[in-house]
Amino acid sequence: MIESVKGARDILPEEIARWHFVERTAHELFARYGFREIRTPIFEPTELFARGIGEGSDIVAKEMYTFLDRKGRSLTLRPENTAPVARAYIQHQLHRRGDIEKLYYIGPMFRYERPQKGRMRQFSQIGVEVFGSDHPAVDAETLEMLVAFLSRLGIEPVRLVLNSVGDPVCRPSYRQALVDYLTPHRGRLCEDCRRRLEVNPLRCFDCKVPADRELMAGAPSVADFLCSECAAHFDSVRAYLDAFGVAYELDPRLVRGLDYYRRTTFEVIAPSLGAQNALLGGGRYDGLVESLGGPAAPGFGFAVGEDRLVLSLPDAAAAGDERPEVAIVALGEPAIAPALEAARRLRRAGRSVIFDPVPDKSLKAQMRRAHDRQAAFVLILGEEEIARGVLTLKKMSDGVQATVPQAELLTKLQEMAHA
Ligand code: HAM
Q1: What is the number of structural domains in the chain?
Q2: Which of 35, 276, 380, 416 could be joined to 30 by an S-S link, Cβ 3.0–4.6 Å?
């Protein structure tokens, strides 16, 4: 038997209603805030991620699916979508009109990580990106939308954790302070952190090794190093959030694993997810578009792990969303033609119908199938119905049934549905 690749999984029909539910909610809600969908390719030139996310990040250093195509070009399956969307923004000159551009996406990402619950090698993200403004109101309004999104999905309680990581004015002195703090302990750092210390010491905050985490707990705090512009920006974001009534916690150790962040960074933690508890992450990335060869367009966004989102939904979410309205039970070969006719009639009128032509299967077995699929109604065509040229319609919720000719089927269904 050939099985799916480790870390990649099938989403089966039993689960799909929950995926549709979160995607439908995203499409509806994001549109309300002026976001439009963008779909970018699943693979990109490797250089896009090396430059966009940063050579020093774990993603670029060890998690990318990179391969040469037949012409020897280095391509990479996208590990995230902020850099690709920024690339598309530049390539199609979406900045030309000088407007704020609000984009969102839903789709698969790929990272070579150790798979466990909620952590996959192919996973899906729902993300948004706002280009063209560094106003703190953009940060706050997008966060407000995010909180509204989670609340509409019934995902509560969650913790919104917020930080500012400064900008190229103030970050160098913070970086230096970290280097000064860590260098005397270099010998006891894990191998990854020794590499991080050279390339980007802020990454050491992401380390999962207990001894390193303990050391990082005593490290200097970025909050003490913010320049006055960054501090004012952060104060303003917080003031807007307070005005919206959006609750958050501050964590000066939240630096996030991608190099493009400036100023605001955040994560949402869902306790139900256990060790892999970051439901989503995001922040501001004002230098990214420029570093990819575009204009000086600031940006802000987030991406939710859709797999984790679906895991965090309440059990009842989307239950029964995709159940058929009618299941047809047809006994014996002569029942097939009238069953097909009834199915066509119902579907033309917009009803969802399941019908399996299995005339030899018993009434009991066919009823069980209708029950398993949670059909609201069962339409029965047995020997007696065929002989009399009628159909029996049964409402599953109360067992009430009625016998009608084909021509009256729709009216009867409507009447019984509203009874
Ligand atoms: P990220 O924190 O790397 O940020 O990923 C965002 C979310 O994707 C995570 O919080 C998690 O829910 C989900 N995720 C990441 N890796 C995996 C995995 N291996 N399996 C399952 N879920 C995973 C970004 O990707 C940024 N592009 C977010 C962003 C958008 N920042 C600004 N705009």
Answers
A1: 2
A2: 35
CA distance 385 to 391: 6
CATH number at residue 101: 3.30.930.10
Tell me, yes or no, whether 331 and 305 share the same domain.
Answer: no
Pocket test for ligand 1, best of 123, 162, 263, 272 (most atoms within 8 A of CB): 123
Q: Is 385 in the pocket of ligand 1 (CB under 6 A)?
A: no
Whether residues 286 and 381 share a domain: the answer is no
List the residue whose alpha carbon is closest to atom 30 of ligand 1.
302
- My answer on whether 141 and 25 are in the same domain is yes
pLDDT digits (tens, 9 = 90+) for 165-215: 999 999 999 999 999 999 999 999 999 899 889 888 988 988 889 999 999
Q: How far is the CA of 306 from the centre of ligand 1 (A)?
A: 9
109 CA → ligand 1 middle, Å: 9
User: Is 122 within the bounds of a domain?
Assistant: yes
228 alpha-carbon distance from chain centroid: 35
Any atom of ligand 1 within 6 Å of the Cβ of 338: no
- Relative to the CA of 304, which ligand 1 atom is closest? 7
**Domain check: are 288 and 410 in the same one?**
no
pLDDT at 274 over 80: no
* Type of residue numbered 314: P
> 82 in ligand 1 pocket by Cβ < 6 Å?
yes
Predicted local distance difference test score (pLDDT) of residue 84: 98
Task: Please give the residue range of the domain that contains residue 409.
Answer: 326-417
Tell me if 202 CB under 6 Å of ligand 1: no
What's the confidence (pLDDT) of residue 203? 86
pLDDT bracket for residue 256 (50, 70, 90): confident
Name the token pair of 27.
């499409």
Residue 214: name the closest of 205, 222, 223 by CA. 205
Q: How far apart are the first and last CA of the chain?
A: 50
Q: Is residue 305 part of a domain?
A: yes
- Do residue 75 and residue 139 come from a single domain? yes
Looking at the fold, whether 35 and 116 belong to one and the same domain comes out as yes
Q: Provide the whole-model pTM.
A: 0.92
DSSP states of 142-205: HHHHHHHHHHHTT--S-EEEEEE---TTTHHHHHHHHHHHHGGGGGGS-HHHHHHHHH-GGGGG
CATH code, 403: 3.40.50.800
**Ligand 1 in contact with 287 (CB < 6 A)?**
no
| pLDDT the model gives residue 276 | 65
Instruction: Evaluate: CB of 52 within 6 angstroms of ligand 1.
Output: no
Q: Are residues 20 and 130 in the same domain?
A: yes
Q: How far is CA 60 from the centre of its chain?
A: 21
Is the minimum distance from the CB of 111 to ligand 1 under 6 angstroms?
A: yes
